Structure formats: C-alpha cells, structure tokens
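User: I'm putting together notes for a lab meeting next week and I want to include a structural view of one of the chains we've been expressing. I don't have a solved structure, so I'd like a prediction I can at least talk through. The sequence is below, exactly as it appears in our construct file.
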Amino acid sequence: MKHALSSTPTLISRRQAAAMLSVNPKTIYRYECGGRLRAIKINSRTTRYRISDLENFIVDPEIGGLRESRVTNHPCNGDHP
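Assistant: Thanks for the context. Below is the predicted structure for the 81-residue chain, given as structure tokens.
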C-alpha cells in the first residue's frame, strides 16, 4: 500500500524557489503575478511553490510552472511580497 504523503508534491518557499532559479525572491513574485509561475497560497502571508513547477520553468520558461494554460486571474492584487 502506497503512503498518502508520498504522492504529495514537495513545496518550497519563495526564497528557496529564488535560490533554485538563481534569481531574487521579488523576481519569483513577478513571475507569479505575470502568470508565468503557479503559486500555492497557504494563508494570507505564506506562499509556496511546487518543485516540479520550478523544474518545468527551468526547462521551458515560456510555459514555466503552468502545466495547463496561463493563469487568467493571477493572485497578485497590488500587494508586495
């Protein structure tokens, strides 16, 4: 029997995502706001990113962490990270 947690995607913080892509954390936020990278909101102050989405972004930055179509209603509402 497969453990339920083994299929759960590994999530990392904005700072960790920035380190993985060798960019500033604000750049990760801009990618998120621009619909190039999918973010998972844990609560109003915490955002996480799937490692698999970041790996996809490295391979193809144009579609990046968006496996389906681009995000039409991005999570940014003028607030800054």
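A couple of points you could mention at the meeting. The helical segments are 14-21, 25-33, 51-59. The chain is about 30% helix and 15% strand.

User: Perfect, that's what I needed.
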